[in-house]
Amino acid sequence: MAEICIKNLSFHYADDQRTILENITAQFSQGEFVCILGQSGCGKSTLLRLFAGLESASAGEILIGEEKIQGTSLQRAVVFQDYGLFPWLSIGNNILIALQQCFPGEDKKVLQKKVEELLQMVGLKPELYHKLPKSLSGGMKQRTAIAQAFGMDAPILLMDEPFGALDAITRRKLQRLLISLCKERKEQKTVLFVTHDIDEALLLADRIFVLGQAPSHIIHSVEIPKDLRNRSDLLFENEFFITQRNTLLSYLNEDIEKGEEESLLG
């Protein structure tokens, strides 16, 4: 599989010289599930937007194989925390419009059938096809967004704290759904998943990168052993998970304390 490389990546907005991301370098393989972990405001979502092509790097680059990311692409699907659904379209048509962009030559009836299959795949009843997003719960909206992303069949899936606003039970159900969907694919998707939840990262990830406070850089990384990946039954009792949870928490706490000290100094 081709490598995905982040090379000396830095970012600041054109009208604001404060650096958000600074000299980030990392490498992982296509097909990996990578969690970007860090406290709120550290630049996790900005990094994801750079992967999506919604922002351009101030310095450095992101490479997928030999290809540099420049602008948006249907090869990279995005699931946002706020679902990213058009409120005036039914949930079925929200998915349909994405499929029509990806498969412009396909017959509409074929794509509508595909939408029904996608809704079923994420556990939504067929009669919800014509419901507007405002009539659905947060969990249902996020299931719709996941169905939309998987329907696009992009090799790279970018997820920006997609379960952050959900209650604990719904969150765990959707975590299990995401795991099962990723495992069922014949061609493994690369997933970049932004979260500030340590347990979520330990449950979902093959590899975790921890971002420090802005100007943000990678302060720690960990790879989950293959035989322990997605093991919710071991998450709170296995020695590896206990050790890594404490290590990750320690890095985050030290980073917070460092930031507070620097703030007091000036």
Given helix and strand content, the structural type is alpha/beta
Computed Rg: 19 Å
How much of the sequence lies in strands comes to 15-25%
Number of helices: 7
Order of helices and strands: EEEHEEEHHHEHEHEEH
Distance between the termini: 47 Å
Q: What would the average pLDDT be, to the nearest integer?
A: 90
The amount of helix comes to 25-40%
pLDDT < 50 runs, ≥5 residues: none
Shape: globular
Name of the top-level CATH class of the domain at 3-75 and 154-265: Alpha Beta
Largest sheet: 6 strands, mixed
CATH architecture of the domain at 3-75 and 154-265: 3-Layer(aba) Sandwich
Strand segment count: 10
Domain ABC transporter: 4-238
InterPro entries: AAA+_ATPase, ABC_transporter-like_ATP-bd, ABC_transporter_ATP-bind, P-loop_NTPase
Protein name: NitT/TauT family transport system ATP-binding protein
Keywords: ATP-binding, Nucleotide-binding, Transport
How would you explain this protein's 3D organization?
- It comes from Oribacterium sinus.
- The chain has a domain at 3-75 and 154-265: Rossmann fold (3-Layer(aba) Sandwich).
- Helices cover 38% and strands 21% of the residues.
- The protein has helices at 44-52, 91-102, 108-121, 138-152, 168-184, 198-204, 239-265, and strands at 3-11, 21-29, 33-37, 59-64, 67-68, 76-79, 156-160, 190-195, 207-211, 218-223.
- It is globular, with a radius of gyration of 19 Å.
- By secondary structure, the protein is of the alpha/beta class.
- It has a six-stranded mixed β-sheet, with helices on both faces. It has a four-stranded antiparallel β-sheet with strand order 2-1-4-5, covered by helices on one side.
- It has seven helices and ten strands.
